[in-house]
Amino acid sequence: MLDSTRPDPVRSDLMDELAPNGIRHGFFTRRGGVSQGIYAGLNVGYGSSDDREAVKENRSRAARWLNVSDDRLATVHQVHSADVEIVDAALPVDERPKADALVTATPGLAIAILTADCGPILFADGQARVIGAAHAGWKGALHGIAENTVAAMESLGAKRENIHAVLGPAISAANYEVGPEFIVRFIEADLANDVYFKSSGKDGHALFDLNRYTLDRLARAGVAVDHAARCTYAEPDNFYSYRRTTHRQEPDYGRQLSAIVLET
After folding, report:
1. Most buried among 48, 124, 151, 190, using CB within 10 Å?
2. What's the mean pLDDT when you consider all of the chain?
3. Nearest Cα residue to 26 out of 55, 64, 53
4. Is 247 exposed, middle or buried (0-12, 13-18, 19+ CB in 10 A)?
């Protein structure tokens, strides 16, 4: 049963170590929202066909949990790229830049990304007080969204050895079957990528471990890594899932929010 009154985001113990540095974070679930029907819960996706006022209220509830005003919750127009935006002011919803990560050193500005199976990554350097949020689907992960976010944080004074990075709830390998063209793309990029695939039992297809792939790339980037190991596909009461919606032949799906803020 979804709680209709209060969001209850997933947290990371690693990131919570930075709470004394004024860093607040959460991987929001479906809980605590006002959307109904197939969007039931805390759908924050203006790109969905959900009622716009419901999405606005859901975003407002997430902002309140983060202790910021509605207009201080910044998101981007995600395009499955490896592009990062450095921000120091609010981003109006209708003027969001096309990118897949945000970085800031501005207190009181919450930065967030939306997912529905892709990997949400939250970053923080508690000493430099620089934070980041990245949307890592397979395209972004393959082309370096994690590494680009770390580099953008360094440009604001962060040091990668001080950065904590947490991969939030995303689709697990058990529910992520891919076809031969997908497999070839990753193997051509790096022969070592074959470790992220195992047979799905269907000829030419495989199960792809996007979570492990992303975590390994974060580790190689030299940051401290944590994983909120929850599968968006397998928990319909808690998370929206594009792939689950496709398999169920539903007309649309919601999006969950993952956000981080430097408290003032």
Report:
1. 124
2. 97
3. 64
4. exposed
* pLDDT at position 161 over 80: yes
| pLDDT tier, 1 (very low <50, low <70, confident <90, very high otherwise) | very low
- State the pLDDT at residue 5: 73
Residue with tokens 């997933």: 10
CA distances from 114 to 13, 18, 60, 78, 111 (A): 21, 23, 15, 8, 11
Q: Name the 3-class secondary structure at 104.
A: strand
Q: What DSSP letter does each residue of 68-80 carry, written as one string?
A: S-GGGEE--B--S
Structure tokens at 237: 């009461």
What the chain holds in terms of domains, given with CATH numbers, is 13-171+223-262 (3.60.140.10), 173-208 (no CATH)
DSSP state of 161: G
Q: Are 136 and 119 in contact (CB under 8 A)?
A: yes
SS3 158: coil
User: Closest by alpha carbon to 133, among 235, 250, 118, 142?
Assistant: 118
Element (H, E) at 258: strand 256-262
Give the DSSP per-residue string, 9-29: -B--HHHHTTGGGTEEEEE--
